């Protein structure tokens, strides 16, 4: 085989979970063309993957509009078909991703036998069922590829390489903020896509204040997208002793990667930055409530997951079914701070 198309459109964490699977393909087919269909918002992280040959951008916004749909659909399908892929692998498992996989007219269209949306499987001619012991998304993706291509299962280390251009942009940003080179940086990412995943800014502030009071020359970088700027500013306003610097909203994904790389650790919810930390071998202190860390937690060693001892966790709901977010009040900030302090010392 010479041409592969990977379909993993979103989100940031899900895209990163597929990196080891793509590395397995590259190992068996070192000269193959491996393209990736992805949401434009997450395309920059694929620039860190040396195994990806080309990036096809999924025009989600245009496909969602009646006016722009015909042109966007025609352009995307034509682009996919032009490449004449030998195999299309849909790791998204949604009907829309399987739909475009089928439209590629590839002789082999593969995906999970039990995808997230069951109708998707009807569009695959290769349906793969990883064994139950493969629980984490990283391992499930890698196992699908190992079965599909008849190669031994493994999870290649996909440490993200330094991007000098992105690092240069970040260095300039931090210098402009007056951050000294001898400061100990701790990343803080209070955002998440689901409301139920978002521990309150006050909780993050409690941890930051306790760590800042115990570790000299510690600087907390408050990270995130423009949507998370308000939460970051709130953390900074509440902290009276800890030194904080807000760069949320001033970085793209590339600079975010480099900021996390520079950090000694990352305080975070179950979010994209958490998975970036895992891909950089930066210890993550992550808070889990509605989701399952066994399935989508920070992959690899050196991370610490905090989860409440409550019967209602792992509800997998975007909003708290009980409307009280009790899990957000059931993790002790002192326990988190002690873990961070122990690491920094």
Write a compact overview of the structure shown:
By secondary structure, this protein is an alpha/beta fold. It folds into two domains: 146 residues, Rossmann fold (3-Layer(aba) Sandwich); 181 residues, Glycogen Phosphorylase B (Rossmann fold).
Percent strand equals 15-25%
CATH level 1 class label of the largest domain:
Alpha Beta
* Number of separate domains: 2
Uncertain segments of ≥5 residues (pLDDT<50)? Answer: none
Mean pLDDT: 96
The radius of gyration is 21 Å
Helix content: 25-40%
The run of helices and strands is EHHEHEHHEHEEHHEHEHEHEHEHEH
Shape verdict = globular
Q: Supply the CATH architecture of the largest domain.
A: 3-Layer(aba) Sandwich
Count the E strands: 12
Would you give an account of this structure?
This protein is an alpha/beta fold. The protein has two domains: 3-148, Glycogen Phosphorylase B (Rossmann fold, 3-Layer(aba) Sandwich); 164-344, 3-Layer(aba) Sandwich (Rossmann fold), CATH 3.40.50. 38% of the residues lie in helices and 15% in strands. It is built from 14 helices and twelve strands. It has helices at 12-17, 19-28, 43-46, 60-63, 69-82, 95-103, 137-148, 164-176, 201-214, 229-238, 253-262, 272-280, 293-296, 333-344, and strands spanning 3-7, 33-38, 54-57, 87-90, 108-112, 126-128, 184-189, 218-222, 243-246, 266-269, 284-287, 304-306. The radius of gyration is 21 Å and the shape is globular. The termini are far apart. The model has no long low-confidence stretch (mean pLDDT 96).
